[in-house]
Design a protein that fits this description.
Organism: Candidatus Berkelbacteria bacterium RIFCSPLOWO2_01_FULL_50_28
InterPro entries: Solute-binding_3/MltF_N
Number of strands: 13
Radius of gyration: 24 Å
Shape: globular
Protein name: Solute-binding protein family 3/N-terminal domain-containing protein
Pfam families: SBP_bac_3 (PF00497)
Number of domains: 2
CATH topology of the largest domain: D-Maltodextrin-Binding Protein, domain 2
Keywords: Signal
Helix content: 25-40%
Length: 289
């Protein structure tokens, strides 16, 4: 009888322990059970992946050196944190989240447009700035109008150029499902899509003003932006970290906001933006009296 009682007590205690353990918060899915944040702190190095997408991220074709608004900002943030940055892998829009899951790098070190899908699969920082998405067409295009949220784009006769895995591809698929999508491999440069608009292989390309102005500097008068006053969409440009990384996010967020409040971030943006105001700044949560 005593043996039976001890057995029942042992089972009950075991169930209580399992219940308590089951209620503990899940750890980050980082390789080896160690969070990306802890790996960075232990090593003193932030391993950052990058995409060649000027001016958020720029890769020198000869030296492979990485610069741009986000890499320059990340280096300043790392300096304030007494850490180093190593840009260790070039990725594409379609594959950038994969390496976060497998631990090949700790974060995406260039600006990525925040959207619901990325927010579900990864941890996003606060915005560095915002991008308005333009609708780029040939100068003589007359079929497209801004009425009813650009409903005239949702037509089988309209060919929308988009890179696989990109946010413009997602916009085309979800907002304009009746339009014909002309898809490109995920390593295709934006300049190629502009060239195909000019060459009449497609009719429309969704891109931020910087990309269009960059193309026009070499090809004056070849394309125009129909959405200057009313962008098709506005996206926050953010850093991306692995999912379930609240401490890492806190470190990156506060470091980025420190640059913003000191004015250092605006200087970096202007360095690449030039005289034209091509990006929307993040409003400060305070005002001088």
């Amino acid at each position: 009888m005593r043996k039976s009682s001890r057995t029942r007590i042992g089972v009950a205690v075991g169930l209580m322990v399992l219940a308590v353990l089951g209620c503990q918060p899940s750890k980050s899915p980082a390789v080896g059970g160690t969070s990306a944040y802890q790996r960075v702190i232990d090593s003193g190095v932030i391993r950052a992946a990058f995409v060649n997408y000027p001016p958020a991220g720029i890769v020198d074709p000869k030296t492979k050196a990485v610069s741009g608004i986000f890499p320059d900002s990340l280096r300043e943030m790392a300096k304030n944190l007494k850490l180093k940055v190593e840009f260790n892998e070039e990725v594409s829009w379609a594959s950038l989240l994969e390496g976060l899951e497998t631990g090949r790098y700790d974060m995406i070190g260039v600006g990525v447009w925040a959207n619901a899908a990325r927010g579900k699969l990864a941890t996003l920082s606060v915005p560095a700035y915002y991008s308005g998405i333009g609708i780029w067409v040939r100068p003589g295009e007359s079929r497209i109008a801004p009425t009813n949220d650009w409903a005239s784009l949702n037509d089988p006769d309209i060919r929308i150029a988009a890179i696989d895995g990109s946010t413009p591809m997602l916009i085309a698929q979800t907002q304009f499902p009746n339009a014909k999508i002309v898809s490109y491999p995920d390593h295709t440069s934006e300049s190629q899509l502009f060239l195909d608009i000019v060459g009449k292989k497609a009719d429309v390309f969704f891109a931020e003003p910087y990309q269009g102005m960059r193309f026009l500097s070499s090809n004056p008068g070849s394309v125009k932006n129909l959405a200057v006053d009313k962008p098709l969409r506005i996206f926050a440009d953010v850093f991306i970290m692995p999912k379930n990384e609240p401490q890492f996010k806190s470190m990156i967020d506060n470091s980025l906001q420190e640059l913003q409040y000191s004015g250092a971030l605006d200087k970096i943006i202007k360095k690449y933006e030039g005289d034209s105001l091509l990006f929307y700044r993040v409003a400060t949560p305070f005002a001088s009296q």
